[in-house]
Structures are given as C-alpha cells and as structure tokens.
Amino acid sequence: xxxxxxxxxxxxxxxxxxxxxxxxxxxxxxxxxxxxxxxxxxxxxxxxxxxxxxxxxxxxxxxxxxxxxxxxxxxxxxxxxxxxxxxxxxxxxxxxxxxxxxxxxxxxxxxxxxxxxxxxxxxxxxxxxxxxxxxxxxxxxxxxxxxxxxxxxxxxxxxxxxxxxxxxxxxxxxxxxxxx
Length: 180
Hints:
- The protein is mainly beta.
- The chain has one helix and ten strands; from the N terminus they run ββββαββββββ.
- The protein has one helix at 68-71, and strands spanning 30-31, 38-41, 51-56, 63-65, 77-87, 95-102, 109-116, 125-134, 144-149, 162-173.
- A hairpin with a 6-residue loop joins strand 6 (95-102) and strand 7 (109-116).
- The chain is globular and about 40 Å long.
C-alpha cells in the first residue's frame, strides 16, 4: 500500500514554480536546449503560479528535470509517482514516457515508465499516477534527471500538434508489506 507523505509536497521544482534562464524552458532546474516545445507558463496551473506546457508534434526535444536528486533524498524502492496533467481538447495524445538517469552512469536510463493518458478527460486537470521501482538511491551526491518524452512510437495513429500541461509532481513511498 501507498503510505506516508508526498516527498515533493511544496517543492518548487516539482511544480515548475522557479523561473530559469536560457535552455531551461523557463523553469529552474530543467533543461530542454531550446524554447520549444516545452515552456513554463503562468496561464494554467493547479497550485502555485506556474506549470509546464508542451505544444508540438512528436519526437521533439525531451524535457530534462535536472534537479530531481537535489530536491529530495530518495532511497531505492517502490514509489507512487504522480503528475497533474491538463490535456487540451483536440489533443489525441495516448502516452508519455518518463525515465530516470544519473550522470555517473553516462545518463543511461535506470528505469523507464509510461503514463497512459489516452482515456483521461480532456479540458480539465487530472491526476495520473503509477508505482515505479527506483533501483538505486537518488540524491544530490550524483546528478540525476527525470525526463519527459512525447514520442510517435508510443502514440500510434496520432498526428499533428498536441498541447498539454504538467504540474505538481508527487512522490510517495510504497510500503513493502508482508509477503507470503
């Protein structure tokens, strides 16, 4: 069972609250290398004053959350990872891929997960969540990134520009519980 507090509650990084400079999509602790397709916005948000907006097609630049390990000390184990997402009406997006990687391992993914968003409501904020297994500890001693990808290969039959917003990432430890 999921138990405990959200380890990212009130964290400005998890809610895209801090402003960033060039190549950061406008959000502190993020890197995209260009202004588009990702951009911090104050037009729509769940809490605070900002969210992250994606507007574009597929297989464009991913959004790298470079300060993940600087914001919280995470031990290896299972966690419920959640995001608030607002998908604009007319966007047919089916899946978003996320991945965790460390600089000490040459940015090779430690794990990959997929959020299925095909059947969630459009035009309103929805919480998406799933259990993910973090194979190692993540903290400030090793540069860590949590990456968002919007890819054609996991969105078959979907074409054209997609628009969605992300806000308020959550992270709650999953209790191991007794095993038979």
